[in-house]
Amino acid sequence: MLLSKIADELHVQQPERDVEILDVTYDSRKVLPGSLFCCLRGEKTDGHRFAAQAVEKGAAALIVEERLPLPVPQLLVADGREAMARAAACFFDHPERKMIMLGVTGTNGKTSTTYMLKAVAEEAGLKVGLIGTIHNLVGDEVVETERTTPESADLFRLLNHMAERQVDLVVMEVSSHALAQNRVAGIRFKAALFTNLTQDHLDYHKTFEAYRAAKKKLFYQTDLTIVNDDDPAAGYMSQGLPCPVWTMGIYKGGDFYAKSIEITTAGASFHLFTPMGDGRVDLHISGLFSVYNAMGTAALALAAGIPFQIVRKGLQKLPCVVGRLQAANTFGHPFAVYVDYAHTPDALKNVLTTARGFAKGRLISVFGCGGDRDHGKRPIMGEISGQNADFTVITSDNPRTEDPMVIIKNIEEGIRRTAAAYTVIEDRRQAIHHALDMAQDGDVIVVAGKGHETYQEINGVKHHFDDREIVEDYLGEDGDDLGT
Q: Which parts of the chain sit beneath pLDDT 70?
């Protein structure tokens, strides 16, 4: 593709000379001859510093926010991140226009909703692309991911791959970071869902208001917005939008609502009412939050033209979502263990409340908080565990570059407000083992914070670590005397 065509797409001044572009990238280490290198300004680095290196490796042109003394054509733009997204969309011939695009944003529920929607769309006979936290999927093909929403050059490369594989529908988790950094700029979504909003990522956004504003950006590039009307931020999210808004809820009702809800260890059942039909839905995933996720899924699916009865069938076929209130095999021991990704205050409260509902004995919570992330939520989560669990084991999560005991002390500030019973075991494996050792008949253990993750990041190094694997290895091989 000629650089001049990309310049037209960006509505910027034409380059002093035209060149053929063979790739779009922002990583100087991945530059190939003919690449368009995008100079992005970040929190810690500035891509302009690596432009010379990119040119040495064969970059044919640059996208810059300031002119550089380098012998290649340069497109001068006001926002390098938005420009990269639009340049990548142009270079890959707008793959997003060849598929139904559905987006999901919110603090919690994004992953579960996207997997529910994948099940529904496949029940309708559609080939589905999924972009999200666990991994990206192109039909049954797994494409590993480092970010919930990839950088735009990577995102459009992935969307192009999906279009080439004849994907019909793409469901995407759209993170607040991605929205703030314009990674999805230029994508027009057929429908987008707002799940909920609670404290998270304030290490990046600094204020809750900025976090909330980032989320709302999604709804200015969709044909239809769906909001959880039971969430306090619903009014803010739906106000002043240039598109129709559908609402959903349990307490307030709405266009989509649930009645006669039953929550058990086996799942959640409810009667779902929609403008396109109503009927009983039996989920294999427990928790009131799963009812919300199912309602949001139904709304997105119906917006995409999938019939209501197919929506019901698809929701009921999904066995579980990896790392979301996922039961571990306890090998006949008289207690239950669930692994969950809950790493925010609201998510931890939801999963503990759900587990409390079917615990015949005590509820034991095992959790920590990630390092180099929002410090403010740590004492809040400690207090939540103290209020909702009978016993808490505070441990390490992904400390990253922080001292795990500093993180744990932050959590302790909150749990001490409750006078709840707890212990501190820094080593996460030992913490899980301790909870299993103390479990009695009818107890429920919730191991929270990592869910689907198969690693623990310590001092910048990722070590293999899978909460469910730890539980099952201990109970299956060394746990013969547990629970007695």
A: 147, 199-206, 477-484
